[in-house]
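Researcher: We're teaching a course module on how sequence relates to structure. For the next exercise, students receive a sequence and then see the predicted structure as tokens, so they can try to spot secondary structure elements on their own. Here is the exercise chain.
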Amino acid sequence: MRILRLITIVWVALRFGLDEFFLGHERVRALRWLVKTTLFWRNLSEPRAVRLRQALEALGPIFVKFGQMLSTRRDLMPPDIADELARLQDRVPPFPAGLVRTTLQRVYGRPVEQVFAQFEAEPVASASMAQVHFAVLQDGTEAAVKVLRPGIGAVIEHDLGLLEAGALLVEKLFADGPRLHPREVVAEFRKTLADELDLMREASNCSQLRRNFEDSELLIVPEVYWDYCEPEVMVMERMKGVPISQIDTLRAMGVDIPRLAMAGVEIFFTQVFRDTFFHADMHPGNIQVNARGQYIALDFGIMGTLTEVDKNYLAQNFLAFFQRDYRAVAQAHVDAGWTPPDTRVDEFEAAIRAVCEPVFDRPLKEISFGKVLLRLFQTSRRFNMEIQPQLVLLQKTLLNIEGLGRQLDPDLDLWKTAKPFLERWMNEQVGWRGAIRSIKQEAPRWAVLLPQLPRLAHAYLGHNRSADLAALSRQLAAAQARQQKILALIALLLAILAVLAGYSLFRH
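Model: And here is the predicted structure for the students to work with:
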């Protein structure tokens, strides 16, 4: 089946003329005449950007997600391609209304009319994994109903199989393959896609994020209506806002766009460093803005988490970057084991400085983060730095945030916006506030443990005494067993030697 899927991918690429992206390179110029001769029948009248979007749609969810990410990187993509790929964010061709009703009736075990007072057959948004319909519950509550695409799991499984095979080839055939951990990265991708296929998990993600920002003036998260949620269907509060990509409409509403861009940065860092639970699919199709200038989060299928170790490491690195303390950055990488222990910190420091120093004190519109990332990748390869698969989602989200910030306010200074937040967070973590918070968190445990300490100490000492005797007895028994095995082995060797000696005498 994977071979058939690979053939399908190649066929779709050729049918939509995507070979022109490859054949445009001078090194393969000689192949152009062969392609034109053998594929003369193709209709390539549509612009290249339209054909690229159509090909990604035809290939399915994984390729659509790739196009969504590219659409936010207008510094890397030509304008015509970025504009066309933006259609993938919430305008993927929907599946028929009949299939939607079939799914709902199967899930709920009764007709749609008995579940909802009203249900709009026309979807309001259609994405790679699911589509959304507006509805009204029986009590008159307005809701949004998200329905999973039928049969999407099998398509994803085939594509993941191809990705796993490709990752194995990269790891085996390329010198940098093992350092990049491609199979671990694909495994992380598989996990996130599996989470997206379970809308009950997405509903729980939504509920958690709503609880984290319950009192926030920056971000609004819809309420989940749990009585209507199933693995294939998620029902939540209907949110009313304007897509964040419609900047002219937001300005007409009186929204302060530069303030909105700064709020987006603060929301991201709050999710990562305060909650260690962040929205990892923040492309414009998943974000709206209301009249008060508040963000509205949508689509919670991909959420990222960080361990305390990862969180503290990242915070220290961000602060070191903002303070231009490149030695601290280099030393942190060595201490974390991400670079070999024999790495010369001074050389690593100089390499990082050469990449990052030109970035600071410049507005976002003058910075190509794509080039910065490329140079950082080249630096990491030089020092044999290992890619951390658990941070792939965070890296992807950073790219989305930067792309979104570029669209909202090209003059946004990402560094100056983030630095005060991270400094405040670090002070709360390692300063006196952090110490008080730790005491408060541990106090209930101490209250339970302290009265039990005498009894536990007595039991521990008594247990240890008997445990020591038992351990000594086991050691003696083991020593005796070893002695018996050695004696038996010696006897066996002597018997073998005796037989050999007798055999030798018999021959003579």
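Model: If you want an answer key for the exercise: DSSP finds 22 helices and eleven strands in the chain. Residues 492-508 have pLDDT under 50 and may be disordered.
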